[in-house]
């Protein structure tokens, strides 16, 4: 039994390692400073993904700023006060939303934001990412908060702490590292999304720091390079992939460090 | 001796299930009252009505009156937060917060804004730890995790945490049931020491413990108060046959 499960574990890690190594080997050759800061250029003239990196960071950032508090708040509600018909409905809807293909979220935002605005924008992209993020964060937060033993809540209540303080000072810190892990998964997930950005944020050949304009992103840029006919473009797609994976890894390590268990 | 807590005709329900039947009891000030009885007899439930911890159970229903210093704690005007500050509680399983030793004790002081300055806070934490006989063991590692303490130390930390908010009554729900004999002895000595300043109600499974620490003992069975008498009388010459049977170990 141990051997069998260990074999499965090794296999799972092995595949991941192969993918990572392959990305690294294919991507590393095309990476240089120019590639990291340049904007895309016509084939043969070099060019880079500087604007895509900025766009991805901006949109993921805004999506996180919108989605994380709402998701965590909803999760706290579900765990602490959601033992009623309303909580059950929210839970059901959240689970359904998690299963909705992300391109459908893109269509939704396209109809809701892009059409009235008359153009694609970074805001529309960020909003669709936020919508994908919220249910994931809510459900993982709920699970993590449920793991905090009830005796801890009672201990704080018995000291005369009002309910909100119990949740805020005792329960949430106790669940913090778990909540952060959930948030990480959600951020990793949305920074890898392409479909909902295709017709919300579209793409841009230029550096763009404003959310009311179309915005480039690593994933859409990878898509464009990868579907192009030239080998140079495929090279750049690999390189951009390596950058994306590295970014996600860095965020992961930093957040884990910041929320490591102190007590 | 004046009554600190006065309970009359208390009935308690979990949904349709009645857990306590018509209990009336006077708990005197600065004495230790022990609640004994077999498992599931309602002694813990009863203890938790005294600081309204049962409020956290949605289906719980209380009927009857409980007066603390003459004030009805179930009146709609009662401030539950103030009540719980006045009536502290120590639980069966020690439940320190995932914070440092210092912050565990400081928590109640902080949330109730009971300190004037950082120095005042330090002083109050020190006093609470001294009163719970833990100071000498932890004074050099106040900023380390509370989970690094032994079970008995954790339980005394929880007592210190309860003492820190300067309650008048302390409810203890089998505080030593998970501890070894030496740690238990320390808790018992502490209880006897604390009754100089506090009114203490202690639930225990251990009849010798009730005999050692309490002034009065209440014997519960199946949600009813069978007998309430001075501990000595209870153990030497109980009024009820049922009490005698329980104490001599004929059942339970």
Describe the structure.
- The radius of gyration of chain A is 21 Å and the shape is globular.
- Chain A contains 11 helices and no strands.
- The model of chain A has no long low-confidence stretch (mean pLDDT 92).
- With 263 residues, chain A is an all-alpha fold.
- Chain A has helices at 2-28, 33-37, 50-81, 85-99, 102-117, 122-146, 150-157, 163-191, 195-198, 218-227, 231-258.
- Chain B is α/β, with parallel strands linked by helices.
- Chain B is built from 10 helices and 10 strands.
- In chain B, strands 6-7-8-3-9-10 form a 6-stranded mixed beta sheet, sandwiched between helices. A 4-stranded antiparallel beta sheet of chain B has the order 2-1-4-5, covered by helices on one side.
- In chain B, helix 3 (101-111) packs across helix 4, helix 3 (101-111) runs parallel beside helix 6 (151-164) and helix 4 (118-131) packs across helix 6 (151-164).
- The longest helix of chain B has 14 residues, at 118-131.
- In chain B, 46% of the residues are buried.
- The model of chain B has no long low-confidence stretch (mean pLDDT 92).
- The interface between A and B is medium-sized, with 22 and 30 residues.
Relevant terms:
heterodimer, A: 263 residues, 11 helices, 0% strand, globular, B: 252 residues, 6-stranded mixed sheet, 4-stranded antiparallel sheet
In short:
Chain A has 263 residues and is mainly α. Chain A contains 11 helices and no strands. The relative contact order of chain B is 0.18.
Structural class of chain B: alpha/beta
On the 0 to 100 scale, the average pLDDT of chain A is: 92
Instruction: Determine Rg of chain A (CA atoms, Å).
Output: 21 Å
Biggest interface, chains and residue tallies: A-B, 22 and 30 residues
Number of helices of chain B: 10
Quaternary assembly: heterodimer
Which residue ranges of chain A are poorly predicted, with pLDDT under 50 across at least 5 consecutive positions? none
**Helix-strand string of chain B:** EEEHEEHEHHHHEHEHEEHH
Provide the spatial order of strands within the biggest beta sheet of chain B: 6-7-8-3-9-10
Q: Helix tally of chain A?
A: 11
| Secondary-structure element pattern of chain A, one letter each | HHHHHHHHHHH
Radius of gyration of chain B: 18 Å
Percent in strands of chain B: 25-35%
Helical content of chain B (DSSP H or I, runs of 4+): 25-40%
> How far from one another are the termini of chain B?
32 Å
For the largest beta-sheet of chain B, the strand count, sense and barrel status come to: 6 strands, mixed
Strand content of chain A: under 5%
Shape of chain A: globular
Low-confidence regions of chain B? none
